[in-house]
Amino acid sequence: MHALQYELTFPADYDMEIIRERVARIGHRLDDWEGLGLKAYLMRERGTHGSPVNQYAPFYLWNTVEGMNRFLWGGAFQGLVDDFGRPAARRWTGLAYEEGAAAGSRAAVAVRRHEPVPDGAELSGVMAEAVRETGRLAAEDGAVLAAAAVDTHHWELVHFSLWAHDTPKAPGDVFQVLHLSAPGRERLPRGRQW
Q: Side-chain half-sphere of 104: how many Cα atoms within 13 Å?
C-alpha cells in the first residue's frame, strides 16, 4: 500500500463552491481506476471544523505503484496541474490499514495527522505503535477506515481515517469528504504491512 496526498491552499475569500462543483463534475473518473485502493476527495473550508485555511487536498491509498504512476504520468493528474499549477505530491509507504466499525457507512469527514518519528527512537517500536493506533482508530464508533504510513525521507508518520459523522474521535486536521472513489478498497491489505 502507498499513500499520496497533495494540497492546494486558496485565499481566505476563495469561493470553495468551485471545488465542490469540480468534484461533482469529475470525481467519478477514478471510480474504476486500476491499482487505486481509494481516493478521498477532501476539502477544508476556513472556519469549518476549526480550519484556518481554504484547501483542496485529496488523499489516496494505492494498491499498486503502476496505478499511481499511471495516474501521475498518464494524463489524469495533468488536468489538475493545468487548472491550478503543479502541487508537491507527498508519498508515504504503507504501515497498516483497517476497515472501521462503520465500514459500510458513507464517509462524512476525514482526519489526517502528521507525526514526526523521533530521532534516536527504535524504529520497530514506533512503527508497531502506529499499527496499534490504526487498529484503535478503526474500532472507534463511527470510524469507516483507518490507515498509517511513513515517509522515510522526512521520517514522518501520517495517520488517516474516515468517519461517518462530523465528530471524529481522532486528533488532527479535519476535512470534508466530497466524494470517495474506492475501486480497490476491498483489496487493500489489512493489518500490518510487513
A: 0
191 within a domain of the structure (yes/no): no
Q: Give exposure, 58-81, as e/b (b: 16+ Cβ within 10 Å).
A: bbbbbbbeebbebbeeeeebeebe
Residue 16's pLDDT is 98
If you ran DSSP here, which 8-state letter would residue 102 be given? Answer: T
Domains: count for the chain? 1
Question: d(Cα 146, Cα 131) in Å, to the nearest integer?
Answer: 10
In a domain, 194, yes or no: no
Spatial neighbors of 3 by CB under 8 A, at least 6 apart, are 59, 60, 61, 62, 91, 92, 93, 94, 147, 149, 158, 160
What CATH number is given to the structural domain containing 51?
A: 3.30.70.100
CB-CB neighbours of 114 under 10 Å: 14
Q: What is the pTM of this model?
A: 0.96
Q: What is the mean pLDDT of each run of 10 residues along the chain (194 residues)?
A: 98 97 97 98 96 98 98 95 97 98 97 97 98 98 98 98 96 98 98 94
